[in-house]
Amino acid sequence: MSRNKILNKVTFVFLYITGIFAFLQVGNTYAYLNDGETVKDNSFGTGTLQIELRKVNSDDADSVISPSNSITKYFEVENIGNEEFIYSLELKDTPSDNDLCGEVDLKAYLVPDTGEAILKYDGKLKNFAVNSDGTDNDLLMSLGDVIHNFTFEYSLPNDADSALSLSSCEFDVIAKAWMPEFSYQNAHWDDSTVTDELDSGNWLIEMGFETAETLKDEDDGNPDLGFCAVVTNDKSAEDNTAATQEIKWNKVENTQKYVINKFVFDDPNWDFVNSTEVLLTNPNLTESGDIMTYVTSVDAEGLYGYYIQAFNSDEELIGATTPKETSFTCTFEVVWFEGGDVVINEVMWAGSHEHEKDEWIELRNTTDEEIDLKDWIIEGAGPDSHEMKLTGKIPANGYYLVSHYPTDYDVGNEKAAVNNSIEEDEYRRTGSESMHLEENGEKLILRDPVGNKIDETPDVENGPDKGWAAGEAGNYGHDDTSWRSMQRIELDDSDPGDGNNPDNWYTCNHDECNDDEYWDDNDGRDYGTPKHRNLANQKQILVLEFLLNNTLPEISLDLDETTVGVGSTAPVEVSVEIVEQESETSEVPETASPPDIPQVIIPEETEEEIPAEEESPTEENTTPEVEPSTPEEAEEEVTVQ
């Protein structure tokens, strides 16, 4: 045991002495850390590897790139650390979806302090990379070599597509630096990025472009076309299978053919539809002075845009409208409306107690979509041509008020009676399209921009309301008279009924029609509900629903000495008290009358007299009397007490 202990001690001493000797022989020890940290003499001291890429202002910074004009820009690479490195230049996150970036050519030169510039890259911008393999010693930066200068020349091919005109390309250039002892593939220890942008000019003949409708509306005597910013509609076939559009643009000299590129909007993008080559001999293409006109058509609803190109006999592109599909400034919308999508809902044809010209027409949108009323027409509402062209938009399931006066108008002896809080959508006080409704009656027709009849009011010749289906004109100077609107029956929001049927209209007699919500004064002289739901008395609506949904002979209801004619051209007016019965449902069975009016007995067709109905007691022990009549009598009298 003692011998082994001695041997172990000798071995330990030997190893200890060997370790000390080896440690004393160590010189400098290096530890490579990020950004080039260095350790010497077994104590840590740091060094930094740091690169900076800068863009230097160029003389032509404000110029644009085109096939005939290149752009030169300048960049600097600087070693701002205290370690040498090798570096690369590359395009970061190539914008592959940018057409201009994809077509730009780039030449990159390294410019030494002395000597000629050295071409380092010649190719497409999108593929730009210099020294990505780390073998180019020209891009080795020692501690004394602190700045490298680069010149970038950007250009476009001579045959660059005109679609690249007036567009932009933004991209990032990145400089990557790493220590020469390592390969580029294994590590890079610092980088620096700059953002650059190129703008392209318009190197083609700019062809002004707009629709025929827009050109007509300008009416400025200037034949030159400019870019339009409107949506237009033109005439369509009566069967709504095609819509024609006249497109106009500036003529380009030496053109052999034009190409019409059609796009349709599919939110949020414009989708290409087709391209049509149009030779100068095409019968749909006409020339008038410096203006070319082409007639095209579409067979489906939608928002269309056009991009037009001009080519010479060598198939060279020499002109184009701009821009392309990214942001059309001139479009053509095709919308075919159904009858009843917008209806004439209320007409204050007699004016108000304030002035006989205080007239207005209320439209109602029966659809769930906003509708642009631009170029819609109301026929019969103007003084001379009896036509008014509309301009605004009517909200979904909303109202649109066209008036003679603004609702807050008060000048001299002319004043509007409508409550000032109700703002008209447009007013027509003066001019050829001013509002002028004849008290003797007019037929109003609402047409969409392509001329289709969407709605109309009845033409009641020699009617009881001066030729209107309903409404009332008061007598000026008599406080006991009133002015009342003609309202359309609103029994079904989606199906407003036939506006040409006089029975679908009634006079606004509801007490609330005179409410100060609608009028400046609720003194019993003005009745109507501008830009609000029509207000038939609910009992009146029950009667109307029953009478309109069932086939009845002509009858007359004598209610509290008020006789109301139904089935004639006179408006239906009910203003009596009817005792309502409680019911769990508001629906009216087909075989029964509404719950709050008595049973109306319809006689069968017979030549015999109809016996009187047996009395049946009511809550007040009264008996409805039904006067028998013969078929030869003009109408049946049903008296309800």
TrEMBL record:
<keyword id="KW-0472">Membrane</keyword>
<feature type="compositionally biased region" description="Low complexity">
    <location>
        <begin position="619"/>
        <end position="629"/>
    </location>
</feature>
<feature type="region of interest" description="Disordered">
    <location>
        <begin position="422"/>
        <end position="481"/>
    </location>
</feature>
<feature type="domain" description="LTD">
    <location>
        <begin position="319"/>
        <end position="488"/>
    </location>
</feature>
<feature type="transmembrane region" description="Helical">
    <location>
        <begin position="12"/>
        <end position="33"/>
    </location>
</feature>
<protein>
    <submittedName>
        <fullName>Lamin tail domain-containing protein</fullName>
    </submittedName>
</protein>
<feature type="compositionally biased region" description="Basic and acidic residues">
    <location>
        <begin position="426"/>
        <end position="446"/>
    </location>
</feature>
<feature type="region of interest" description="Disordered">
    <location>
        <begin position="581"/>
        <end position="641"/>
    </location>
</feature>
<feature type="compositionally biased region" description="Acidic residues">
    <location>
        <begin position="630"/>
        <end position="641"/>
    </location>
</feature>
<dbReference type="InterPro" id="IPR036415">
    <property type="entry name" value="Lamin_tail_dom_sf"/>
</dbReference>
<keyword id="KW-0812">Transmembrane</keyword>
<keyword id="KW-1133">Transmembrane helix</keyword>
<dbReference type="InterPro" id="IPR001322">
    <property type="entry name" value="Lamin_tail_dom"/>
</dbReference>
<feature type="compositionally biased region" description="Acidic residues">
    <location>
        <begin position="604"/>
        <end position="618"/>
    </location>
</feature>
<dbReference type="Pfam" id="PF00932">
    <property type="entry name" value="LTD"/>
</dbReference>
